[in-house]
Structures are given as C-alpha cells and as structure tokens.
Amino acid sequence: MTVAPVAIPLWADLAAVAIGSMQGAIFAAKVDNHRIDLLGVGVVGTATGLGGAFIRDILLNLSPAALTNNWYLPVAVIASMVGMVLVRLIARLEALWVVLDALTVGLYAAIGMTKALGIGLPLLPAMFVGVTAAVGGSALRDMLLGQPVAMLKVGTRYAVAAVAGTIALAASLACGASVHVAALVCAVVTTAMRMCAVWFGWSLPEQRSWTPSRRRASSSST
Fold first, then answer.
1. Which member of 31, 32, 36, 101 has the lowest number of beta carbons within 10 Å of its beta carbon?
2. Stretch 27-56: mean pLDDT, rounded?
3. What is the model's pTM?
4. Under 8 Å CB-to-CB from 191, ≥6 apart: which residues?
C-alpha cells in the first residue's frame, strides 16, 4: 500500500513535540529516586519531545526535522519549562497526565506512519516506523533517567496502543479514506487505547520462565 506524497503540517509535528516535551519534563520532575535540577528536567523533557521525530527521520533516511527548522528546539524547550511549572497541578490531575501521555503516543504513531507511506515505504515497514516513533521518545526519557524502559515493562501498553493505531490507519486507507483522515483515525485510536489500558488495567500476559512438565515431575520425586 502506498499513498501520494503528503507534507506533514508543521503545526502537527510541533504539537507532537510540545506535548512530548511537556510530558517528559513532568515525568522527570516526578521521579522520586533521583535529584534532578531544573536544567536536567529541561534536558529530559526536550529529549522526550524530539526523540520520536529524530528516530522517525533517521529510519526514513531524512535529515532530522529538528535540525532543519528553527521552530523545533524552542518549542521543545518552552514546552519543557511549562511542564516544570505545571507539574504540581498535573500531579493532582491524574487524568490530564494520562491524556498527555496518550496523546504523545498517538500523534507520533500517526505522523510517523503517514510520513513513511508518503515517501513510498510498503505498509509493514511504515507501520514499524510509526510504532517506533511513538515509543522512541519515552524510551529515550527512561534511559536518560536510568529507569527501566517503560515500553518493556508489564502493564505499560505503549507499543500495543501504537500497533492498534497503525492498523486503524491502514484499514482507513484501505476503505478509501484520505491520508489526513486516516492519520486522524490512527491518532484517536492510539490515544484511546493507551488511555483505556491505563484506566481499565488492560495488559498483555507476562512472560514467565517455562519448565517442562517432565523436569518438574522428576524434581518433585527427588
């Protein structure tokens, strides 16, 4: 499946960067087992907002948008500062925190996959780009903070939500929807899946070590 080349609106990409940076700064400020100064919180927030865009563009063999446009870095820095200012308020409004987190995943999944399809990538590689862009910023955030990468922990569901969104985008295109409508569907589905997973506790089964029954039987007999 291919689509005609489509230019991602600058405001949409900047919105994803801003929301991701704000979410990253709030997350860094809430970490209890690290003492992080204001500069550190700003760095983590900026890296979170720009991480998905960097990974997306590198996978697509494009010059990173943040290095070819003057808007990305200021937007990321300012959004990180806003996140620092609002951290106490948002800490009391858990629903708002969940929405910001889910929007970050949804926007990057939609923009990443749409951009990949627009330059001619086949469907499955384009879905991979979308999912990787969606979780890339959060993964970079966790590595900078020395935390276990959230997308690899049981119960976080970042990648699952992104996969669901990219499938919805592909289905929308197959049904004849325009690229922009399909991208919107992807963002909505991804965001909704992430929010529902948090609020209702949806999770994939945990991987556990498997011991063959014969070995268990022999060990019990001894």
1. 32
2. 82
3. 0.80
4. 99, 102, 103, 105, 106, 161, 165
